[in-house]
Design a protein that fits this description.
By secondary structure, the chain is α/β, with parallel strands linked by helices. The chain has 2 domains: 5-12 and 264-384, Alpha-Beta Complex (Aspartate Aminotransferase, domain 1), CATH 3.90.1150; 27-262, 3-Layer(aba) Sandwich (Aspartate Aminotransferase, domain 2). 37% of the residues lie in helices and 14% in strands. It is built from 14 helices and 14 strands. It has helices at residues 5-9, 21-27, 29-42, 49-61, 73-83, 101-108, 127-130, 153-162, 220-230, 251-260, 264-282, 313-322, 352-360, 372-384; strands spanning 66-70, 91-95, 112-116, 138-141, 166-170, 178-180, 186-188, 195-199, 213-217, 234-236, 239-240, 288-289, 304-308, 361-364. Strands 1-9-8-5-4-2-3 form a 7-stranded mixed beta sheet, with helices on both faces. It has a 3-stranded antiparallel beta sheet with strand order 12-13-14. Strands 6-7 form a two-stranded antiparallel ribbon. The longest helix is centred in the last third of the chain and has 19 residues, at 264-282. The chain is globular and about 65 Å long. The chain starts with a helix and ends with a helix. 44% of the residues are buried.
Length: 387
């Protein structure tokens, strides 16, 4: 089905990537190179002034919330749970359809992950199922803002307040998304709960050139505790008030991120433009469902994820691959079916929506450097597929 690789190579279409980090770098190369050179000249590779500068930029972006950088997004989640004083045996509610990092840190700290299914349209945590999972041991809910769109936070925050629970927002895929409350006010992802955790993995909407992460909170005392835990549990060098970890954003990555955050508005618009193009071209195709967009939150499209219906996903991916169109599956196995997180009595059928999504989702290329020729080609090939 469709043209093979030889014919594709004769077209005037640039090579299509899931993420074009090289193209993005080339567009801001002078700024990035200068920022890196300043760090190299100073040789302040750990805790250089660019780290504090980026934390200030991050705070400004989040409306003045306290911002603390760390080594990666997984560390951010762990540090948040340590700072909130959770104890082994405490229960944390999270969606079962997500990347493993969220459950991983819960297990590593001796806490108990309590899984909840997700909504078919938004891919985010099903708020209607949360309250039934709360027990006297529940201490927190972790909504994961999947693919670039906030979970439905207003009812979730109401449940948390009613039950005196913390809300830890995992917003690594929704950096910059804004949620609008019924009273018309809006807040950035990461700033609505007790604390927000994000990642600066290179492919993220705001990504560095290595590993990096951050936490944001409006609670000053909590922020101070987070800062201390991320730095070996010390406020003053060699004086350790808490059991901490060694998790820091290095100066080079901070310098890069402080340049890139200035471009985040443009990056967001570029991703939304790609999604708009896909929506328009693919909405009439009967064997797929385009991503739903919430009325309550802006979608920043970390991923553009379709749901296939009546189509063998592997065959469809092979067809795309034969036409040099990359694709990805986020995520092929929900957490309750992963060997590391299997629990007696919880098997197939326990979370039907997540299980169905794991079998039918597929993500198309989306990034800041895509052009209309690439998008037209992708959509044309999808339309030509014989389901």
């Amino acid at each position: 089905m469709g043209m093979g690789k030889e014919k594709f190579k004769s077209l005037s279409v640039k090579k299509i990537s899931m993420v074009d980090l090289h193209g993005q770098y080339q567009n801001i190369k002078p700024e990035i190179d200068q920022a890196i050179q300043r760090v190299l000249d100073s040789t302040a590779f750990i805790k250089g002034p660019q780290v504090a500068q980026f934390e200030k930029s991050l705070s400004d972006f989040h409306g003045g919330a306290q911002a603390i950088t760390c080594g990666n997004g997984t560390d951010a989640l762990q540090i948040a749970m340590m700072a909130l004083g959770f104890k082994p045996g405490d229960e944390i509610i999270l969606p079962v359809f997500t990347y493993v990092a969220t459950a991983e840190v819960i297990a590593l700290l001796g806490l108990k992950p309590i899984f909840v299914d997700v909504k078919k349209d938004s891919f985010n945590i099903d708020i209607d199922q949360v309250e039934s999972k709360i027990t006297p041991k529940t201490v927190a809910i972790v909504p994961v803002h999947l693919y670039g769109q906030c979970a439905d936070m207003e009812p979730l925050l109401a449940i948390a307040r009613k039950n005196k629970l913390h809300v830890i927002e995992d917003y690594a895929q929704a950096f910059g998304s804004e949620y609008t409350f019924k009273n018309g006010s809006s807040k950035k992802a990461g700033t609505m709960g007790t604390i927000g955790c994000t990642s600066f993995f290179p492919s993220k909407n705001l990504g560095c050139y290595g590993d990096g992460g951050a936490l944001v909170t409006n609670d000053y005392q909590l922020a101070e505790k987070v800062r201390m835990i991320a730095n070996h549990g010390q406020r003053i060098k060699y004086y350790h008030d808490e059991v901490g970890v060694n998790s820091r954003l290095d100066t080079l990555q901070a310098a890069i991120l402080d340049i890139k955050i200035k471009h985040i508005g443009r990056y967001e618009k570029s991703r939304q433009a790609v999604a708009d193009f896909y929506d328009q071209e693919l909405k009439e195709i009967t064997f797929l469902t385009i991503p739903a967009r919430s009325f309550d939150a802006t979608h920043v499209f970390h991923q553009y994820t379709l749901q296939l219906e009546g189509v063998d996903r592997d065959q469809f991916r092979n067809y795309l691959d034969s036409n040099e169109i990359p694709s990805m599956v986020y995520y092929p196995v929900p957490l309750h079916l992963q060997k590391a997180y299997q629990k007696t009595g919880v098997g197939k059928g326990a979370f039907p929506v997540s299980e169905k999504l794991s079998d039918c989702v597929i993500s198309l290329p989306i990034h800041t450097e895509m052009d209309n020729d690439q998008l037209s080609y992708i959509c044309k090939k999808i339309k030509e597929y014989k389901a």
